[in-house]
Amino acid sequence: MAHEDDPLEHERASWQPSPGLAVAVTDPVRNDELPPHRQRMTDKDPAAMKRAARTVYTLFYLSLAGSIWAVAAYMLFPIESGSLVDIRQNELFVGLGIALALLAIGIGAIHWSKAVMSDKEFIEPRHATRGRDTTREAAVKAFADANEESGFGRRAMIRNSMIAAVVASIVPGITLFRGLAPEDSPENPNAGNPVYLLSHTMWAKGTRLVHDPTGEPIKASDIQLGSAVHVIPEGLMPDEVPNYLDEKAKAIVLLVRMPVNQLHPPKGKENWGYDGIVAFSKVCTHVGCPVALYEQQTHHLLCPCHQSQFDVSEGAKVVFGPAARPLPQLPIEVDAEGYLVAQSDFLEPVGPSFWERH
Questions:
Q1: pLDDT of 171 higher than 80
Q2: What are the required cofactors (predicted)?
Q3: pTM of whole model > 0.70?
């Protein structure tokens, strides 16, 4: 109780709200008792509890089926074929399988917690935490009580189906890693060697640079100062090249033109450009994202994934971010008709630096 001479108490007693002002008076230390416990249908009816448990493990088995379907869809619609139809169907059906697997686990876990687990309210008084034997024994008892309340140890059907669903939900992700690089074969002994695969692209001496995706050849006179153009090798068209997307992913190039006096190429690469026009791989050397943003004033290329920046005026060297090496440069020149052509293929592997580690 407040003291009679407490000035704060006098101030509270004398204060009156303005007319028309609604005031909600609450006691911040009031501790209302818990309302009467309302039993769920599954608490009152054993048949309802059985139906709820059946629903839970059915959802977990549905998740298991989704994981199996995702793996099967990956095999039924191989992306290695290069067909856009197979690729679209692969992405659609693998994605649906994974979505079903994760969604069913989530819904099953929520329904389990709401309909099957213990629904009683408890008040746990606070106490000092001590590392005594009694504390450890209480912790063990708490786990035992939680197991009893959740029914995890007692309801074998729910437990086993949940474990199977969780384990199976990881399998589609592991399966997808299979497509990162094909396995070696007698016909292609280097198919599983990423260093070899990324060291060879469709660029070759005399290959014209063409617009992506139209395939229109590019003349040096067409490139304006400050512009950045997305290019691919001539002949890299969906209906003309097997494994079109794989080849394009390695060969994509960004063409940039800047004043010749602002270019400072590394030693040995002085003749890799033409009249201020230089070409660099669009595949970031960090984790392989497409580098497609060019800042004209600073001459920087930006990777939008992890913000690595490359200075075009300095041979696309790294000036910021996690990338470990400059973007590979494509040596270019012009042919007799004035079209830009490659002097050769890239002289180093494109893509992330870790592919070069043996």
A1: yes
A2: [2Fe-2S] cluster
A3: no
Total number of domains constituting the chain: 2
Confirm if 37 and 121 have CB atoms less than 8 A apart: yes
pLDDT for the residue numbered 212: 92
Helix and strand numbers, DSSP H then E, in the chain:
8, 11
- The pLDDT assigned to 1 comes to 46
Helical H segments across the chain, by residue range: 7-14, 41-44, 46-76, 84-111, 133-150, 156-176, 194-199, 244-251
| φ, ψ for residue 211, nearest 5 deg | -65, 140
Which residue's entry shows tokens 């050397």?
285
Contact predicate 254/273, CB 8 Å: no
- Say which CATH number the domain at 248 has: 2.102.10.10
Nearest to 281 by CA among 240, 326, 322: 326
**Residue 200: what pLDDT?**
86
pLDDT in tens, 89-102: 888 999 999 999 99
Residues 176 and 214 in one domain: no
pLDDT of residue 26: 53
Residue 63's domain spans which residues?
A: 41-119+137-180
* Vertex 274: Cα angle to 269 and 275 (nearest 5): 120
Angle of CA points 71, 246, 289, to nearest 5°: 90
Phi, psi of 254 (to 5 degrees): -110, 125
Please, is 70 exposed, middle or buried when counting C-beta atoms within 10 Å of its C-beta (0-12, 13-18, 19+)?
buried
Pair of tokens at residue 118: 């213990």
Averaged over 302-320, what is the pLDDT? 94
Mean pLDDT on 333-343 = 96
Q: Are residues 156 and 297 in the same domain?
A: no
Give, in order, the Cα–Cα distances in Å from 125 to each of 14, 63, 128, 141.
38, 39, 10, 16
Q: What angle do CA 279, 283, 288 make, to 5 degrees?
A: 165
CA–CA gap between residue 354 and residue 358 (Å, rounded): 9
pLDDT in tens, 211-226: 998 999 999 999 999 9
Question: Which has more pLDDT, 6 or 344?
Answer: 344
